[in-house]
Amino acid sequence: MIEPAQPTRIDLDLALAAHTFDGVATLNGNDGFQSRKISSGASVRLRLLNTDGTPRRFTVQGTQFLVLAVDGTDLNEPTLIENEMLEIAGGGRVDIAFTVPLAPVWITLAETEVGLALNADGVTRPITEASAEFDPSSYGEPAETPFNASNRFDRRFELTIGRRPGFLDGRPGLQWTINGGIFPHVPVFVVREGDLVHMTITNDTDAVHPMHLHGHHLLVLSRDGAPVSGSPWWTDTLNIEAGERYEVAFRADNPGIWMDHCHNLRHAADGLTMHVMYEGVTTPFKIGDTTHNEPE
Prior knowledge:
It is a single chain. This protein has 296 residues and is mainly β. The chain folds into two domains: 12-133, Cupredoxins -  blue copper proteins (Immunoglobulin-like), CATH 2.60.40; 155-278, Immunoglobulin-like (Sandwich), CATH 2.60.40. It contains one helix and 24 strands. It has one helix at residues 265-269, and strands at 12-21, 24-27, 33-36, 43-50, 56-61, 66-70, 73-74, 84-88, 93-99, 105-109, 115-118, 132-133, 155-168, 171-178, 188-191, 196-203, 209-213, 218-223, 226-227, 234-235, 237-240, 245-251, 257-262, 273-278. The strands form four sheets. Strands 13, 14, 16, 18, 19, 20 and 22 form a seven-stranded mixed sheet that branches.
């Protein structure tokens, strides 16, 4: 959750957590529409959270809205948008804001009958398709960042997600790989405190992978070779679609041994896990099939 540096008056500040229980989609534990009454002209901030391991999409019907923050970091100079789908990576968070109009507003988990309805008693929700998908790489305005793509980087790493036949804990199958290796036989990215780190992440599979580095925020530099052109895009969970390639950067300022893994925990348990390790940091714990100690 993010608290604005310059607090503003908010009439309704509400977290909405999406989660799937035994195949049933819910929002804050409810499997239907939650109804609220609120005065027109009121200011609303909704903190959308995806607690599933796979992407969830939200639609906002009945009003224009601002996207204020992604994964706990403000976006610079957000602009009003409407009828755009918000796709949130597994474990991701997006904050939106709007002023309540005279007409009803629906916030819906796409392709479900689950959501939040404001001032909608007795009104049938319109069935409309979002005309576009929200793109954080071009939304908002550029701003100064502590580093950017033109900096000299202390470390450069390539992380390629793949799949091949192999064994995981003695089980044969088609296994997820990182740089060709099946966990725990995957690379460890070693950094020194203070390093400026560049990482290229490529998804060579036909599945989406929400990659999450613990302990750090990543600055997205480019997607498929196209530089980020809008607000600085800081994230800790990056939704990487099939065939996509991202360049990201981070400052190594939090010593430890940190997991970098797919937030689809089924994928992580099936081997899509690696670690970023700081020089001089050790642990008495070991991993692998003989230890019965797995990171997930």
